[in-house]
Design a protein that fits this description.
The structure is a single chain. This protein has one domain (3-211): TIM Barrel (Alpha-Beta Barrel), CATH 3.20.20.10. 44% of the residues lie in helices and 16% in strands. The chain has helices spanning 3-16, 35-43, 54-67, 84-90, 100-113, 136-148, 166-180, 193-198, 208-211, and strands at 25-29, 48-51, 72-75, 93-97, 118-122, 153-157, 184-186, 203-206. The relative contact order is 0.16. The structure holds pyridoxal-5'-phosphate. Pyridoxal-5'-phosphate binds at residues 29, 31, 52, 76-77, 159, 189-190, 205-209. Keywords: Pyridoxal phosphate. Its cofactor is pyridoxal 5'-phosphate. Pyridoxal 5'-phosphate (PLP)-binding protein, which is involved in PLP homeostasis.
Amino acid sequence: MSLHDITSRIAKAEADAGRTPGSVQLIAVSKVQPDTRVAAVLDEGHRYFGENRVQEAEGKWPAFQQQYDGVGLHLIGPLQSNKARSAMELFDVIHTLDRPKLAQTFARLAQELGRCPDMFVQVNTGEEAQKAGVLPADADAFIKECQSLDLPVRGLMCIPPVDEEAALHFALLAKIAARNGVGDLSMGMSSDFEKAIALGATHVRVGSAIFGERSAG
Ligand SMILES: *Cc1c(COP(=O)(O)O)cnc(C)c1O
């Protein structure tokens, strides 16, 4: 696969689902990938990237951002409160707002920094103990809490359980977003992004299908 193959498949999935062309943003997930592969995708003109660790992203993106204009960085991994400030300084969008303490920390830092990245609330649609995200039953109240803190909640994000039909989780996420009036849906990865687009994804997070398999780590 290559960037071009993935963007063609996204365009086809948009058309098949009757979605507006260009309504789905591809986030190229560059975690753990060697810099040469990331640079190749930047050279092809792609600008939206996802990382799951603040520290790793701090080590690699400032240099790329000097070299390439218009990079949009998305945090897609779980965030500890003590890294919230660094995350807000580096990332344009945070997909993993998942608990009241983090929401309160972001709200305080937004006042201090005078800016705030766009945010997605992560929902643990599979109710998995090891996975981050607010439970579906708590999602409505948590979204309202974030909004009352003036956080720019643009949408919802989920990572379906590996052993379950992803479409059920995508549909559940879309339903929670609709009843809360939040527009964007961050869902779908290498193995299931077309399904996610059919169910309304606005942001797909695709790593290995663009860059190749990640080595250990
Ligand atoms: C790694 C990762 C992805 C990309 O996974 P692929 O299967 O390589 O496409 C998407 N979302 C999250 C949250 C990830 O951590």
